[in-house]
Design brief:
heterodimer, A: alpha/beta, Rossmann fold, 15 helices, B: about 90 residues, alpha+beta, 5 strands
């Protein structure tokens, strides 16, 4: 009982700290002053029981183990946020700084965000959709996945909280991003990955010179190890003790789509589901824009994509459960192979209350999805993107997406990192001699092969 | 019979800041009662009002998630190591 009383007092105290933080928040620099003069940051709040905590490096509620999330009070901003003030901000996620959980005037800005929102013509026509858009984070900066958004936010906050070493458990993309942005920010870095990752993802981390621990186990085991390491070395783990800040970075995928659609929400979004965090944060981003009056309110349908070889959320959705049964991943879509997804219950909730769907596709369909996006839109995505495109296709074919809906599909990573996945499925170059005759013969042969490709009967 | 339990940081206030606690029990359910005797108040944090494990708490016996074993009925043997870990995100 004594212990319980101590904890309650601490929370009351942290309530006060939340308010103090608002009062001492520093004015922003000239480039950002258009947005606000005071931070809207309020506290960390348990998503389960509502207990509030100081804005420190902590991620779990002491009472119920629920995840902590950053809460804001946008009425505390001394200047209202307007479309114009955002548009006048930097060409990066930091144009939405007032909505992000940092206090500094000088966030780590490596040009992350503001990736293209491409209106699809050829893929849309092939699928029979009239208004399909592709949010292309395969070209996000600096490491070609949406993870640069969350890491930019997490490491900015890590510096504010005084960490000198940052770390993460990763399926690859997060490791790339953490290593790159840490070196840019002058932070020491140690990342943990499963030992069987694709070569591109390993090289794309090692090149920045961090310490890399390749753990002999799957991602869930890596994550568990890290949660045991997290508190022993005083490191900032972006997806563990910094998770409340880190995950907020994904909201920018919602903000940008709304802004790029001309300050309007789409009707339907399709996004990959790994831990479920990205999915729920896009939702939070849309809701915040509605709350502050930047866009008109609208119900956006949220549909999620999983690989069949690791689909605990899709299974729970199909069976009408509000809890997940963990699985041991077995899929080529390693970047989304999380068998014990932490935000699954919230992702299920978002999909259900918005009348969305959660679907899974086989590895073969994932490869076809990668090829379909590449051949119709010129975008080479990794396995997560292949999963999302394949689920989009499946939802259209089963009548779950209305052709009239303004649909946005989120492509979150780059195909050059997972070349193993498509090796053997794409063609070979035609090797020729540097002679005209050799070229002509090869061209004729390739045209014959092309014809064979689309003729359904053997010739 | 002795089981080593790894205690996560949010609960270490209840264990006098100890990261590990030695307990008894032939199953996870019994282990929870043994833990409660050693560290009063801890069971309330780990279980909901119905006595079921909270949905954001993960238990591992010798590195295996008990949801792949027998859940709360998972049998324990002398020398086993039980980890209590909050759910975490990532990717």
């Amino acid at each position: 009982m004594v212990n319980l009383r101590v904890s309650i007092e601490r929370i009351k105290q942290t309530d006060c700290c939340g308010r103090v933080l608002i009062e001492v928040a520093k004015p922003m620099t000239q480039t950002l002053t258009n947005q606000s003069l005071r931070s809207a940051l309020k506290a960390l709040k348990c998503k389960e029981c509502g207990a509030e905590y100081e804005l420190q490096a902590t991620h779990v509620c002491e009472f119920c183990f629920g995840p902590l999330e950053v809460s804001y009070d946008f009425s505390q901003l001394s200047h209202p946020i307007t479309r114009e003030s955002i548009a006048a901000g930097p060409h990066s996620i930091w144009r939405y700084r007032a909505f992000l959980p940092v206090e500094t005037d000088t966030p780590i800005d490596v040009g992350t965000g503001m990736t293209p929102l491409v209106k699809s013509h050829r893929l849309a026509r092939q699928l029979g959709l009239k208004h399909l858009y592709i949010k292309n984070d395969a070209v996000n900066m600096p490491t070609l996945s949406f993870k640069d958004r969350v890491v930019s936010v997490a490491l900015t906050r890590a510096q504010e909280l005084g960490f000198s070493t940052v770390s993460c458990a990763s399926t690859g993309n997060l490791a790339n991003s953490t290593a790159a942005i840490a070196t840019r920010a002058g932070l020491d870095c140690c990342v943990f990955i499963p030992a069987d990752l694709e070569a591109g993802k390993v090289m794309g981390t090692l090149i920045y010179g961090p310490t890399v621990m390749a753990v002999q186990g799957n991602y869930d085991q890596v994550n568990r190890l890290c949660s045991e390491v997290a508190n022993t070395h005083g490191w900032g783990f972006v997806n563990i003790n910094l998770r409340p800040y880190y995950s907020e970075g994904s909201k920018t995928l919602g903000y940008e789509v709304a802004e790029q659609l001309g300050w309007e929400l789409p009707d339907h979004i399709v996004a990959p589901l790994a831990s479920g965090s990205l999915f729920t944060k896009i939702y939070k981003g849309f809701r915040e824009f509605v709350e502050v009056g930047l866009v008109a309110d609208k119900t956006v349908r949220f549909s999620g994509a999983q690989a069949e070889g690791c689909s605990p959320i899709a299974q729970a959705y199909r069976e009408g459960r509000d809890f997940i049964t963990p699985v041991k991943p077995n899929t080529i879509a390693k970047s989304i192979a999380i068998g014990n997804p932490a935000d699954a219950v919230y992702a299920l909730d978002v999909a259900r209350k918005t009348n969305g769907q959660i679907e899974s596709v086989t590895d073969a369909e994932i490869v076809e999805g990668i090829q379909l996006l590449a051949e119709t839109e010129g975008i080479f995505t990794e396995t997560a993107g292949g999963t999302t495109v394949a689920v989009l296709k499946k939802l259209v074919e089963t009548g779950k997406i209305d052709p009239e809906e303004k649909t946005v599909v989120y492509i979150t990573g780059n195909g050059l990192k997972t070349q193993e996945a498509v090796q053997g499925y794409v063609g070979q170059p035609l090797t020729i001699e540097p002679k005209l005759g050799s070229f002509e013969r090869a061209l004729e042969r390739s045209r014959t092969l092309d014809r064979l490709d689309w003729q359904p009967v053997l010739v | 019979m002795s089981i080593t339990v790894l205690i996560p940081t949010p609960l270490q206030k209840l264990t006098q800041n100890q990261a590990t606690v030695e307990c008894n029990g032939s199953s996870i359910a019994e282990l929870l009662d043994s833990l409660e005797q050693n560290c009063p108040g801890i069971k309330d944090r780990l279980c909901d009002e119905q006595g079921e494990l909270r949905r954001f708490v993960n238990f591992y016996v010798n590195n295996e998630d008990i949801r792949f074993l027998d859940g709360k009925k998972t049998a324990l043997q002398d020398g086993d190591e039980v980890s209590i870990i909050p759910a975490i995100a990532g990717g």
